[in-house]
Design goal:
- The chain has about 200 residues and is mainly α.
- It folds into 2 domains: about 70 residues, no CATH class; about 100 residues.
- Helices cover about 60% and strands about 0% of the residues.
- The chain has 8 helices and no strands.
């Protein structure tokens, strides 16, 4: 699935930056007015607003572009790509933790856990192929570290562990490298709890 089909621009941007879009009909420069027709209100018809922006840019009518909202939408889409990658990392890491420490449950949940791991792996690979700059070392390391920090309490909650039990059981740092868990078919061995105390 392509990047465009994965993202609902309006909802993503609204979630990412929490700002209410300005109505185009109130725009000072007549933004969103395709060929002199009535203004397109971004709040009332997002699709029509997008088409109006595309048309204005294609026709080099730059004074008709609603630049403020265009910038907000693009910024929201960029943020959403990062959030989506972080979410897929968090999901796969939580399942790998459960796989490693909740070994008695493996047979019961074998199919669903493996399916989730495989799906997350595919989504991560697709995200990095479509947006290679998300994989640059500094950006990716921050995403990876945060995803693991977030995956620990998620896995602990699903396993019924208290915070204290989680900290006794799960390592503070991810026990696998990205290259390891992205290998096709990788499933970790049982890991020992950090402490019995």
């Amino acid at each position: 699935m392509g990047a465009k089909s994965k993202h609902n621009g309006r909802n993503i941007a609204r979630t990412a930056n929490g700002k209410k879009r300005a109505a185009l009909s109130r725009s000072r420069n007549g933004a969103g007015v395709p060929n002199g027709t009535d203004p397109v209100d971004i709040e009332k018809d997002f699709y029509a607003w997008l088409l109006a922006q595309v048309q204005a840019i294609q026709q080099r009518r730059f004074d008709a572009v609603d630049w403020e909202n265009v910038v907000e939408e693009l910024d929201g889409m960029a943020r959403s790509l990062k959030l989506a990658l972080a979410s897929h990392l968090r999901v796969i890491l939580a399942h790998l933790l459960k796989w490693s420490y909740q070994t008695q449950e493996r047979e019961l949940h074998l199919r669903s856990w493996r399916t989730s791991i495989v799906n997350s792996r595919v989504e991560i690979r697709d995200s990095l192929e479509e947006s290679p700059s998300l994989g640059n070392e500094e950006t990716f390391n921050r995403l990876f570290e945060k995803a693991y920090r977030d995956a620990r309490p998620v896995a602990a909650a699903k396993m019924g562990l208290s915070d204290r039990e989680m900290n006794r059981m799960f390592p503070a740092e991810c026990p696998w490298t990205f290259e390891q868990f992205m290998r096709e078919g990788f499933l970790p061995a049982q890991l020992p709890a950090l402490s019995k105390r």
